[in-house]
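Reply to thread "Modeling small-molecule complexes from scratch"

Following up on the discussion above, here's a worked example others can learn from. I took a protein sequence and the SMILES for manganese (II) ion and predicted the complex. Inputs first:
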Amino acid sequence: MSYCFISDLHIDNKRDDIKTAFFNFLNTIALNFENLFIIGDLFEVWVGDDYQDQTVLEVIKELKKFSANGGNIFIMHGNRDFLLGRDFCDKFGGKIIDDPYIFEFNNKQIYVSHGDAFCTDDIEYHNFKKMVRSSKWQENFLNETLNKRLEIANGLRKDSSSLNKNKDEYLMDVNLSEVESIALKESIDIIIHGHVHRPKIHHEKFGTRYVLGDWDKNFWYLSIKNGEFNLISKEIK
Ligand SMILES: [Mn+2]
């Protein structure tokens, strides 16, 4: 079995370069893998599966091509696109997976998460997450008109970026004791996550933690093929 992991593309209609890099990736590198895992923040924002601009339609088309070639697509929610739903995934035959997603590979327990759940020092963010992940909030939000939802999402985005500006660096990274305690509790050997935009391979007490990078000047993916793990980055031209 071969697996490819990506996260934090933050696609929106302002970054054509990233969209294009993603489509190139899907039509070349990704074809070498049976399973493509997009583990959060494929999109910069998601206000409901009924929102479809040109960018969204193109993404659906390219993902559909990938599954038509026999590839499996797994989608995990990120902190920005947590409203991605089954309607969206059905359009290209993708499957939504829970965060965390745990699977066994070569007798190793692999724990896959977007990564925001590890950042427990950022209490403000976790209170916000608790609110927007409640079914009540989501139901109310999705009942608003599309324009109203876009307006609310814009407001939330501005709030969070101004809050984050004043936050200490450590708040924006994982809390290592949280990571260790989860790994211990679930007997995990390998953790794969994104979110923090600090791509790196960490050798922790429990095993290895692969942190994916966000797509910006470079794109990042974790390749699991022939039993080997490789965190790879290439320039976006
Ligand atoms: Mn994120």
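What I'd highlight from this example: The mean pLDDT is 95. The helical segments are 16-27, 54-68, 86-90, 123-132, 135-143, 146-165, 176-185. Questions welcome below.
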